[in-house]
User: Fold this.
Amino acid sequence: QVQLVESGGGLVQPGGSLRLSCAVSGFTFTSYPMNWYRQAPGKERGLVASIASTGDSTNYADSVKGRFTISRDNGKNTLYLQMNSLKPEDTAVYYCHVRRRGTSYWGQGTQVTVSS
Assistant:
């Protein structure tokens, strides 16, 4: 079955960096675009970044452009999100996502807290 397992979250000071990872199994990773979403307390889940199946095209929410970088290693079936210059408003649970054959699959999420 499809499994998405995020890791790499934690507590970081404003201006700091974190790298999130999402280990994928149960489907052909190389065939699907992948996404990172986030959900802050009391807010709806929103799209942060997307990457094409080949990795040659990416898109970002305006709020993270220039600070976050999405990437993938198709040899390792792993999705990444490099987050730099973190701000308190980046605090949220971050989720890995794929839409496959009309069904959305989510990981369990990893908490990112940006605070001094």
User: Anything to note?
Assistant: The radius of gyration is 13 Å. The mean pLDDT is 97. Residues 42 and 92 are 10 Å apart (CA to CA). The chain has no helices and eleven strands.
